[in-house]
Amino acid sequence: MEGRRGIDKLIDERLNGDYDEEQADLVLRVALLCVRTDKDERPAMSTVVGFLLATSRRTTSLRRVPRR
Fold first, then answer.
1. CA distance 41 to 39
2. What distance in Å separates the CA atoms of residue 5 and residue 17, rounded to the nearest whole number?
3. Cα(45)–Cα(60) distance, integer angstroms
4. Which DSSP letter does residue 38 get?
5. Is the model's pLDDT at 61 over the cut of 90?
6. 27: enclosing H helix or E strand
7. 27 vs 56: CA distance, rounded Å
8. What is the rounded CA–CA span in Å between residue 5 and residue 7?
9. For residue 2, is pLDDT > 90?
């Protein structure tokens, strides 16, 4: 990917660029794991759910950190 510009091509344009870039990157990486050609290399859905929950918790907790 070529930074934010590359991610923007994959994100719903209706968001108008208003999204967490780190979260989008992590979700896209999980998506790439899910579309591997060899089914044995794809993660189980429970693993995918775990990745997504961890991503959600991580970015939610980062938003709670007070800004100076």
1. 5
2. 10
3. 22
4. S
5. no
6. helix 21-34
7. 10
8. 6
9. no
Q: How confident is the model at residue 60 (pLDDT cuts 50, 70, 90)?
A: low
For residues 30 and 47, give the distance between their C-alpha atoms in angstroms, rounded to a whole number.
10
Q: How many CB atoms lie within 10 A of CB 65?
A: 7
Q: Is the pLDDT of residue 15 over 60?
A: yes
Residue 10, amino acid: L
State the Cα–Cα distance between residues 9 and 12, nearest whole angstrom.
Answer: 8
How are the residues of the chain apportioned to helix, strand and coil, as percentages rounded to the nearest 5? Answer: 65, 0, 35
The letter for the amino acid at 16 is: N
Q: Is the pTM of this model over 0.70?
A: no
Q: How many domains does the chain have?
A: 1
Are 19 and 11 within 8 A, CB to CB? yes
- Domain encompassing residue 59: 4-64
